Amino acid sequence: MNHFEYKDGELFCEEVPVSQIASEVGTPFYLYSKATLTRHFQAFDSGFEDIDHITCFAVKSCSNIAVLSLFGNLGGGADIVSGGELFRALKAGMDPKQIIYSGVGKTEEELRYGMESGILLFNVESEQELHRLNKVAGDMGMKAPVAFRVNPDVDPKTHAYISTGLAKNKFGIPINEALDLYKQAAEMENIEVKGVSCHIGSQLTLISPFVETLRKLKNFVGRLTDNGINIDYIDIGGGVGITYDDEEPPHPQEYAKAIKEELTDLKITLILEPGRVIVGNAGIMVTEVQYTKTNRGGEKEKNFVVVDAGMNDLTRPSLYGAYHTIQPVKENNGASQVVDIVGPICETTDFLAKNRDFPEVKQGDLLAVMSAGAYGFTMASTYNSRPRGAEVMVSGNDFEVIRARETRESLIQGESVPGFLEN
Ligand code: LLP
Fold first, then answer.
1. Terminal C-alpha separation, the chain
2. Could you list the active site residues?
3. Which has the minimum average pLDDT: 38-47, 96-105, 147-156, 165-174?
4. pTM, full prediction
């Protein structure tokens, strides 16, 4: 359930007509509903309310500090993968004791920043990272809290590009080799072994891969205990999917029930790293039709709707062939035709939808690209020197720009022509 609905033929976000926001902030822009963000966070988090847990929102999915601050106020923590994400989470006032740091390539500086900030856990992904962290913590006269991200070799049955828990993926430490590393870490002066973590992939529409993973983790934790290593945290990553088109992912409560059933005999704190399931359908991207055209030639004619948002603004269709529902902001029951909805970027992969049955639209019409709250703005770029669009949050009948549209000046910020080029 989300708060993007038609009222009298007009798309609203909560109590505000989307067209009103468009006329005030221009297009394209990303629009988030505070009520939906809150509802989705609570729907997920409440599934685990009867056990010790921390819901660490995956910052990479939607990193605006307004969104992070909202989740922080709802009791959430953060799953970060860079110093930049740590900076954002702290700026948003999130509690460092609820921040966990994942990722295969943390630099020395990033490890130091994490230590200085007093985060809850580093999810270490290699032996070399463990040694680097031990050294950094030693130099600072501290002990680094560590969980190892293990790779359980479970098929998440999702898109190959967003599968992370197979042996062939770059992530984590093979579960069969991890015990040796735990033993090594337990002997290290500046490391405190606290947990085990994993993340098998994103946009999962089945519960069974999570259950299979947890069983492997439990088995592994048993082996740790047998070796005198006791841990406090199990982190099962993110990954419950959402409906973009006709997918039928498990309800978060159903997912929570299955997870809890596996954990009944363990005394640990559960860490979860959800991103998409919370923000995906809590945000849309709004764009304006610039032109319509039909290209004839070849076997068939092809209809195009050219809009002012492209693959730089929403990368998912061109990168993963992902489907996003697109609908006119003013309900349109006109005759439909098959169109490609494309952006202004000079690349053939620049499309938001392909061969879509779509009502006839005209220049100036606004379109809503649904399910754009996750991996929308965060994956946007300025390719073709296009300033990135504004981000806006609605609450009831109020709305505020939470990130200003970039300007042409901001595109060249930090650039300069070196003296040796001047004549
Ligand atoms: N934890 C870790 C360590 C992750 O790598 C990810 C996502 C998550 C949590 C959050 O997963 P979620 O709950 O959102 O499924 N750009 C792609 C998705 C990439 C996901 C990368 N990792 C997309 O647009 O589909």
1. 62
2. 346
3. 165-174
4. 0.97
Q: Determine contact, residues 197/231, Cβ cutoff 8 Å.
A: no
Q: What average pLDDT does the chain have? A: 96
- Residue 185 tokens read as 């870490």
One of 2.40.37.10, 3.40.640.10, 3.20.20.150, 2.170.190.11 is the CATH number of 4-31+281-411, namely 2.40.37.10
**Do 369 and 343 contact (CB within 8 A), yes or no?**
no
**Token digits of residue 270:** 């559960």
What topology is assigned to 34-278 in CATH?
TIM Barrel (3.20.20)
Type and span of the H or E element at 411: helix 408-411
Q: What distance in angstroms lies between residue 239's CA and the mean position of ligand 1's atoms? A: 7
**What is the rounded CA–CA span in Å between residue 373 and residue 191?**
37
- State the CB neighbour count (10 A cutoff) for residue 51: 15
Output the ligand 1 site: residues, CB below 6 A. 58, 61, 79, 102, 162, 199, 202-203, 237-239, 273-277, 316, 320, 374-375
